[in-house]
Specification:
SRPBCC family protein, seven-stranded antiparallel beta sheet, globular, START-like_dom_sf, Alpha-D-Glucose-1,6-Bisphosphate, Chain A, domain 4, 44% strand, alpha+beta
Length: 131
């Protein structure tokens, strides 16, 4: 299993960060420009990653003000889990995105860089949006 992580500190209370992340409708704002055909509801999102794949994910687990887990709803090119953890840090919140992907050696060489960029982009956008 390939584990990709990105962590950011957001100067907002934990419940505000968690509430934002708990709606898949908000996740479009976190995506880079190579994501298109975005459709979402509170619990699910469908989108296309340019030159890669179409993905459909849904939030499978919520632990209020702690954790959100999203998993594919249709067969992805590889098994994947997206997990957001939030933790209080003084006046702010630490938000950590962990992408767990079951990649063979070839896929790992091709996909680990773009997946790391995606994770970093999402955490940075979260910080920009929520300040």
């Amino acid at each position: 299993m390939t584990i990709i992580e990105s962590t950011v500190e957001v100067n907002k209370p934990i419940n505000e960060v968690y509430t934002f992340l708990s709606s898949m409708n908000n996740h479009q704002q976190l995506m880079p420009e190579n994501i298109y055909n975005w459709e979402s509801t509170e619990d699910e999102a469908r989108f296309t990653i340019q030159n890669m794949a179409k993905l459909a994910i849904k939030i499978s687990n919520r632990i209020e003000n702690q954790e959100l887990i999203a998993i594919p709803t249709e067969k992805p090119p590889f098994d994947l889990e997206l997990k957001w953890n939030v933790a209080e840090n003084g006046d702010g919140t630490i938000a950590k995105l962990t992408i767990s992907a079951d990649l063979n050696m070839m896929m790992k060489m091709l996909a680990s860089g773009p997946l790391q960029k995606l994770a970093d982009h999402q955490t940075q956008k979260l910080k920009e949006i929520l300040g």
